[in-house]
Amino acid sequence: MERAVVRCVPSESKLTITFTLDGSHKQMLRDQSEQLGKVLARIANNAVKGHAKAKKSKKNKRDQASVSEPVVRLYYKDDVVAEDALNSAAWQDGAVLHVGDSKYKVERNPPTFTDVELPASLLAGFPVCPKLEIEFGDLKHCTFQWFKEIHPNAEQEGGGENIWVEAGHDRVFIPSNVDIGLKLKLKCTPGNNQRYGVGRELVTPGCVEAGPGTCTFDSRHLYTNRVTDESTVRVVSYNILADIYAQTELSKTVLYPYCAPYALDIGYRQSLVKKELAGYNADVICLQEVDKSVFTHSLSPALDAFGLDALYRIKDKQHEGLATYFRRSKFTLLSQHDVTLSEALLSDPLHRDLLEKVSLSPAVRDKVVQRSTTLQVTVLQCVKDPSRKLCVANTHLYWHPKGGYVRLIQMAVALRHIERVLSELHPGATLLLLGDMNSTPSSGLYELLTRGAVSELHPDWSGVEEVCLALSHSLTLSSACGEPAYTNYVGGFHGCLDYVFMDTCALTVEQVIPLPSHEEVTTHQALPSVAHPSDHIALVCDLRWK
Prior knowledge:
Elements lengths: L1 E7 L5 E8 L2 E8 L4 H20 L5 H5 L6 E5 L2 E2 L6 H4 L5 E4 L2 E7 L3 E6 L13 E5 L7 E8 L12 E6 L15 E6 L10 E4 L28 E8 L3 H4 L2 H7 L5 H4 L1 H15 L3 E8 H14 L2 E7 L5 E8 L3 E6 L2 E2 H7 L4 H7 L3 H8 L4 E9 L6 E8 L7 H22 L4 E7 L7 H8 L1 E2 L16 E2 L4 E3 L8 E3 L2 E3 L2 E6 L3 E6 L5 H4 L17 E7 L1
Parallel strand pairs: 1-7, 14-15, 21-22
Antiparallel strand pairs: 1-2, 2-3, 4-5, 4-6, 6-7, 8-9, 10-11, 10-12, 12-13, 14-30, 15-17, 16-17, 18-20, 19-20, 20-21, 22-28, 23-24, 25-28, 26-27, 29-30
Helix pairs in contact: 7-8
């Protein structure tokens, strides 16, 4: 018996009925409050048109006129459903639709893929992660079959069609070097814990290509080949280089002229990023410079397959932002407290005194409030020990080398916001502050975070003496990964700009995953390169609960 799939959601006014009639795919959108008889009449009318079209020919007009309207009825538990019943009540799961001699079993709200996509870039040795969006189901109950294309022997007489050979049953497939030049096919069936829906079949648009060989993160994965236990949290902070910046003419000709153009392509770089992040087996990942489309269509589907849930905060008037991922087997989401720092400075009474000081210089005030810098604050709770809560703060501060005073003001706003979350909303939570701070260890910002205060005499206030002020906070923070020689390495600059700051009252460093060697970083002159997808290097460390 064929299927008639009905999608009927109480919060919506319409329902859809999808089935195949005389070889033609039909999808009917009807009011839930409409009487069943009207739908059955439309189905009967469609059937007549279909039969007439099939018989239509110049020599057979007489047959065309003889097409009669089929009997169309809906049965539920062997009883005819009354035609004055409303659609919302009539189309029950398990009902049977009769269209003449054809019968269709009604499946109401079965598991359904609303979107399935395969990536365009396929590299041998790198995970292929389909984008999957499901309704009325759960990805953990879906089935997957991967196939690889086998070309027929060209010397055989008559050639022949390509053959598909089964290659795997996992949600993620990793092609090998023997698959180079071949396309892949995925058959996936949506499911829940009770039944399966209609499957989908997709073929990759391109063929598997050769990978770059050894990447800068391969040796790092030796330290992270398994997920940590409940006493430890593995943390990653990484600026992955937004595509909107990598594809500019400035990037191609001035910032990264040493990088092969294909290695700046978003598809290629995303293949590397996904493999790198998956191999860290992290519990918390904070990313900066994440394109909205990359988050939605690439990273989140991939990391979801590896057990991570995702949160995103886009910058105002920008196409990139911050992403925080957490391992759902170890953490649950309690709350989010994201904020645009300039908006908070202008509108939150918490920062009134700071705003008054900054406003003493209109130029400084404008410089600060024109920034779209965002702070993403996520509060997580441990699954095994609910008494442990983690406040994860992710940010990407102002970039200009001479903007140290702007970053100090931005961080002052951020710290006050975080302190309020910790004191008023989630007392006892443990802070992790991560991100691209665009500040070296000699900066006032680093001094503020690690020593708890910075003087109004710090050199970062030079040139804006009218707004310089002493800043302090009550948190006990230290840089978990220390002070690396650099976390950003481009042709004209290298230095330590990225950090993982941890609450030393609750956490201690178990291990810091070694950064790539200088030889690895400079093999292709600088970053990014064919072996490294960003101009920054990921910071990775294991932190143990005290």
